[in-house]
Write a structure and sequence with these properties.
single chain, globular, ten-stranded mixed beta sheet, 34% helix, 21 strands, 16 helices, six-stranded mixed beta sheet, alpha/beta
Length: 455
């Protein structure tokens, strides 16, 4: 690992992971600067900490930088990366930098296709409330912790272990969580088998004496756990009776959920949460199992879980206008959409539900095509917004418009832009309805626009 000493220049500093690295380096005392084409709350927060943020990419931005950290979204043709190469400066990627920042810490790494941001946020929140002062790096902004990263002062680190481009293979955790394994990022992995193999590699990176917590209700995470059971300590969690950690007496309601935590059949106590849905119960159980294993008293877990709000963009209330409630939700995989709509139906049993979904990348529409056609149960109306392309170019026959045409239930319409989505949703809405903006891209901007139109 290259030693990171400032000034450090970060290309794409406004991204969720890159901004976390910038914040940690700054809190560690390093001089940090960077560039990003889009200003955001994340970049403004960094600027308030004394970080210089350039609004464009240019070779002269490097200044006196001794090291460059580059987001995976840019290539060697980026002028700042090219200038760093010309000068002979180290150009580092996110995974190796994060691994370096965690050196000397006890590491809890939370991986999984879904639920890793909420689970890692809750683990960090519980440990913070318990006085452990954890270092943490999250893939979303925690409403409870006030951000996506903190240097902390303790000996433990909580990291969201992202599988994209195998980033989590740079980490050697003491505790690993695999919430679930459902085929995703096949633009990188190619096949579901290769994707699952990546989680197996991650599980095998556990340090000696470490433990793996695997979601017992998911076939993929079960297979990974079974494959490493002879070489490492494995614990499962979930609603099934054969799980090491089991949630029983689960009560799902309009205000959240409650359940009993059992370990090997022994009841440890009840947890009550304000988050909706069975998946929230499983994520909370995973966080409780991690923290109990780290010596956190059950009472501290109970108190933290009861007031936990979760990450931004996870079933987040945006506002209400004209009697219509708007919720923003980050779900961008059919399994996530199905789970969150089930939770919404539990939370709002007598209200009409309208969805505004923005597909995230053309490839994800294509390789999950059949699942996308069938994951909308619970919605009364659906608007499909033009695809958030991210790094991709369009794929024939697998566009947002194609998706809207092929969804049988509910009735789905296509919106080419935000204005059209707002117009369609406003026309569909009536007092008492709930509108959910759904997706990992820029669809989050639609909610405020819709509220303005409704008011």
């Amino acid at each position: 690992m290259t030693e990171i000493r400032g000034p450090v220049h970060i290309v794409g500093i406004g991204g969720m992971h890159m901004s976390a690295i910038a914040l940690l380096l700054r809190e560690r005392g390093e001089e940090v600067q960077g560039s990003d084409l889009e200003a955001s709350d994340l970049t403004r927060n960094l600027q308030e900490m004394g970080v210089t943020v350039f609004p464009e990419h240019a070779a002269e931005n490097l200044g006196e930088a001794q090291c460059v950290v580059a987001t995976a979204a840019v290539g060697d043709d980026n002028p700042e990366v090219a200038e760093a190469r010309r000068r002979g400066l180290p150009v580092l990627g996110r995974p190796e930098v994060v691994a370096g920042l965690m050196e000397g810490k006890r590491v809890v790494a939370v991986a999984g296709s879904h639920g890793k941001t909420t689970t890692s946020s809750l683990v960090a929140f519980i440990l913070s409330r318990a006085g452990r002062q954890p270092m943490y790096l999250l893939g979303g902004e925690s409403r409870d912790l006030g951000g996506n990263a903190s240097w902390g002062g303790g000996d433990i680190c909580v990291v969201e272990a992202d599988e994209y481009q195998r980033a989590f293979h740079a980490y050697d955790p003491d505790v690993a969580v695999i919430t679930n394994v459902d085929a995703d990022h096949l633009d990188v992995y190619g096949t579901p088998e290769a994707y699952e193999e990546a989680f197996l590699t991650f599980a095998r990176r556990l340090r000696e004496g470490g433990r793996l917590l695997a979601g017992g209700g998911n076939a993929g995470s079960r297979r990974v756990a079974e494959a490493v059971a002879e070489e490492t300590a494995v614990e499962t969690y979930g609603l099934d009776a054969d799980c090491t950690w089991q949630a029983t007496d689960v009560a799902l309601g309009e205000t959240g959920a409650s359940f009993i935590v059992k370990r090997l059949g022994e009841s440890l106590g009840e947890l009550t949460i304000a988050l909706p849905g069975e998946y929230a119960v499983e994520n909370t159980l995973a966080a409780a199992a991690v923290c109990l294993g780290e010596g956190t008293p059950f009472a501290a877990i109970r108190d933290a879980a009861a007031c936990f709000q979760g990450a931004k963009r996870r079933f987040e209330r945006v506002g209400e206008a004209g009697g219509v409630l708007v919720i923003d939700e980050y779900a961008h995989h059919p399994s996530e959409v199905r789970a969150v709509l089930g939770a919404a139906r539990t939370r709002f049993p007598k209200r009409r539900l309208i969805g505004i979904h923005q597909p995230h990348t053309y490839s994800r529409i294509a390789y999950l095509w059949e699942a996308w056609l069938e994951c909308w149960e619970g919605l009364d109306e659906l608007v499909i917004l033009e695809t958030y392309a991210a790094r991709e170019t369009p794929l024939e026959g697998r566009s947002a418009a194609d998706l809207a045409r092929n969804i049988a239930r509910p009735a789905a319409s296509y919106a080419p832009d935000f204005a059209a989505a707002v117009e369609q949703a406003a026309a569909l809405s009536r007092p008492g309805d709930v509108v959910m903006t759904i997706g990992a891209g820029s669809v989050t901007e639609v909610g405020p626009l819709l509220l303005e139109a409704l008011s």
